[in-house]
Amino acid sequence: MHIKTQPFDIAAHLQSTENIRAFLQEVAETGDETDFIHALNIAARAKGMSEVAISAGVTRASLYKSLSEDGNPRFDTISKIVKSLGCKLAVV
Questions:
Q1: Is 67 exposed, middle or buried (0-12, 13-18, 19+ CB in 10 A)?
Q2: Which tens digit of pLDDT belongs to each residue from 77-88?
Q3: Residue 10: inside a domain
Q4: Are residues 13 and 51 in contact, defined by beta-carbon separation less than 8 angstroms?
């Protein structure tokens, strides 16, 4: 018998703004810029891409493109996405 398993998707476990904030904070502290953009993608999927796009003032297609592996989002786009996830950027 072959059991098909689903790959682990952290987005399924980010069920609150607090979870998203902790996840993004951890990645910001331990990863690089590419890791953070990937984490934003995961967090946006967890919250809902359409909801994040509307809140950030970008199209859904633009959001997907910005947060894709080949994406190179502008700082203002990153800032809008972070805010739409209920977080803020800070320098400490």
A1: buried
A2: 999 999 999 999
A3: no
A4: no
What count of other Cβ atoms lies within 10 Å of the Cβ of residue 22? 13
What range defines the domain where residue 45 resides? 16-84
The pTM for the full model equals 0.89
User: What is d(CA 24, CA 44) in angstroms, rounded to the nearest whole number?
Assistant: 11
> Is the residue at 4 inside a domain?
no
Instruction: Give the DSSP letter string of 11-80.
Output: GGG--SHHHHHHHHHHHHHHS-HHHHHHHHHHHHHHH-HHHHHHHHTS-HHHHHHHTSTT----HHHHHH
